[in-house]
Amino acid sequence: MKLTTWNVNGVRAREAQVSDWLRLERPDVLCLQEIKASPHQVPVSVAAPEGYWAHWHGAGGYSGVALLISKAACPVRPAFSSPSFDAECRIVVAALGTLEVASIYVPNGGKDFAAKVRFLEALERYAAERHAAGVRLILAGDFNVARTEMDVHVKLRDSNLTGQTTGERALLEKMLAHGLTDLGRHFAPNDEALFTWWAPWRQYRERNIGWRLDLIATSPQLTAKATRCTAVREFGSSDHGPVTAVFEGPLFDPSEVKSGEPPVEVKRPDEGPQLDLFGAPMRKA
Questions:
Q1: CATH code of residue 238
Q2: Which of 79, 76, 107, 75 lies closest to 91 in space, CA to CA?
Q3: How would you classify the pairing of strands 99-105 and 243-247?
Q4: Residue 33 binned pLDDT confidence (cut-offs 50, 70, 90)
Q5: Is residue 272 scored above 60 in pLDDT?
């Protein structure tokens, strides 16, 4: 089973690349962040790709996340939801029996650091509650925190910068402490060149001068099934690269998945009524 997480920095700008990734990699789960689009703004070619259940959770040209689940892995449309602390379309969760997969986009914090801290604190409580309830978790996305100094190129290390502060790192570690493993570091514990985000100047991407901000965190039972976790620097034109984890065997029993709400109709601004394959509206704080 294969799961990819990718901050696309605008799904409309990366439409062809999302299609290419689905065609070439065929992930069983695709978690997208920073889609910068409301459901009706998502390009038709990726809105509901053949063979996938798709849920787009966005509110225009800012933030937004999505989850695409393979119909081969999950024959019925799963239930998609967002925790009550989601105030800016930054987290969506798919319920797959005793497994929950979340696509997460933590605030950058540059303009509102307090909001970032609140989100990380709420995310930690969510992980604690789900872990205590016996739910197996995959938390995947752009966490906007470099976990350690090694997760930032030596030229860019500065503990005073947002994303590298001691407090942010402590909150990320507190979340991971609820039985979660950072698969990127699990498979590459000493790799000082493992980055997933590069500033779009000075050929930082080509020179691999970046930060590791995109993580896949898994519960113990899932970590035991993981065989690899890799980041791809060369693919796409987003400032982030896709991160993919591969697991041995299925991660959930399809017979335990409860069918989610049926699609509802939505009208695109430039078209007549059509089927909305993005699911029911999400709860927002």
A1: 3.60.10.10
A2: 107
A3: unpaired
A4: very high
A5: no
- CA atoms of 143 and 107, how far apart (whole Å): 8
Residue 237 has pLDDT above 70, yes or no: yes
Our count of domains for the chain comes to: 1
For residue 99, give the nearest of 267, 282, 272, 249 by alpha carbon.
249
pLDDT greater than 60 at residue 164: yes
Residue 282 lies in a domain: no
Question: Is 180 strand, coil or helix?
Answer: coil
Task: Write down the pLDDT at residue 261.
Answer: 80
Residue 94 lies in a domain: yes
Catalytic residue among 28, 86, 142, 214: 142
Pairwise CA distance, residues 28 & 74, whole Å: 9
239 is catalytic: no
Residue 18 domain boundaries: 2-253
Give the pLDDT score at 279: 38
- Distance, in Å, from the CA atom of 211 to the CA atom of 277, rounded to the nearest integer, reads 34
